[in-house]
UniProtKB/TrEMBL annotation:
Organism: candidate division WOR-3 bacterium
Keywords of the record: Hydrolase, Metal-binding
Protein's UniProt keywords contain Cytoplasm: no
Protein name, as recorded: M20/M25/M40 family metallo-hydrolase
InterPro entries: Bact_exopeptidase_dim_dom (IPR036264), Peptidase_M20 (IPR002933), Peptidase_M20_dimer (IPR011650), Peptidase_M20A (IPR050072)
GO molecular function, one term: hydrolase activity
Organism classification: Bacteria, Bacteria division WOR-3
């Protein structure tokens, strides 16, 4: 068990590694890991860079490739880097994600979103906060142990996953379905939220359930709606009924969570829902 003196040495070493952490952030920002559906090429460039760095530190690194025909390389890669501990205790997993979201309108940026700039102790660039700060912090926490030749009590495994921003089907979900990585007794930390003091520990995160409903109607002119069947009205009615049922079914509250109650919401409607005088069929 490490004492306060050892912990202090680790903190001091992490502080000394700040220039290297900033440099890694610069490199990552310049390698935008955008989903192919968002106009990017996926995570391969980042994985190639990080794999070389982590292997150079002496970590055991494995690459896992989820097939994706939309990606130029044909796959979406994730990495697992391991630091061996002293015994056979459960592995401590730290999972962060490699991908980012698109930068949005260029005119809303004060500088190139894919060129990191440091200003007043902060790093600006697409992805520096989500999820690069957590990823870089976890990597350099392990590097501090390596530099100080400290061996943790349990194995530490860094899981850097693809496809988090668009649902995780080719990232964490694919890894869990196709590879036996985590044991039932392992500890898993996912640093993807927090507060300015660094004191918040998130015990759960929202998830997405994609369900598609199609409503069919009969086209008519807007002046004679009684001759048609308004699919938009049917869709709106369905939406309201679902909203009521879901909030009645998931009405429990628990102060451990923030917010304490379910935040279930219907958030998307496809194009194609038309008014009665449209020239297109109602869908």
């Amino acid at each position: 068990m490490w004492n306060a003196e050892v912990f202090g040495r680790i903190c001091t070493r992490i502080d000394q590694l700040e220039p290297e952490m900033v440099e890694m952030q610069r490199r990552l920002v310049a390698l935008p890991a955008l989903c192919p559906r968002s106009g990017g090429e996926g995570e391969k460039a980042r994985v190639d860079y990080l794999k070389g760095v982590l292997e150079g530190w002496g970590l055991k690194v494995e690459e896992f490739r989820a097939p994706d025909p939309e990606a130029p390389c044909g796959f979406r890669p994730s990495l697992v880097a391991r630091l061996a501990g002293r015994g056979q205790k459960p592995t401590l997993w730290i999972m962060t994600h490699l991908d980012i979201v698109p930068p949005g309108p260029a005119e809303l940026w004060d500088s190139d979103p894919f060129v990191a700039r440091v200003e007043s102790g902060r790093i600006y660039g697409r992805g520096t906060e989500d999820n690069q700060q957590e990823m870089v912090a976890s990597l350099f926490a392990v590097k501090a142990l390596l530099d100080l030749r400290l061996t943790p009590e349990a194995d530490v495994a860094l899981m850097l996953v693809a496809d988090e921003e668009t649902g995780s089907a080719l990232g964490a979900e694919w890894l869990l379905a196709n590879h036996q990585l985590c044991g039932r007794d392992d500890l898993v930390v996912v640093p993807d939220a927090g507060n300015t003091e660094g004191t918040m520990l998130e015990v759960a995160e929202k998830s997405i359930a994609w369900v598609k409903f199609t409503t069919l109607g009969r086209q008519t002119h807007g002046s004679t709606p009684h001759h048609g069947n308004n699919a938009h009205r049917a869709g709106a009615n369905l939406l309201l009924r679902l909203d009521r049922v879901l909030h009645e079914k998931y009405a429990a509250q628990d102060g451990l969570f923030s917010p304490p109650a379910s935040s279930t919401e219907m958030v998307s409607a496809e194009k194609g829902m038309h008014s009665p005088d449209s020239n297109s069929n109602h869908r």
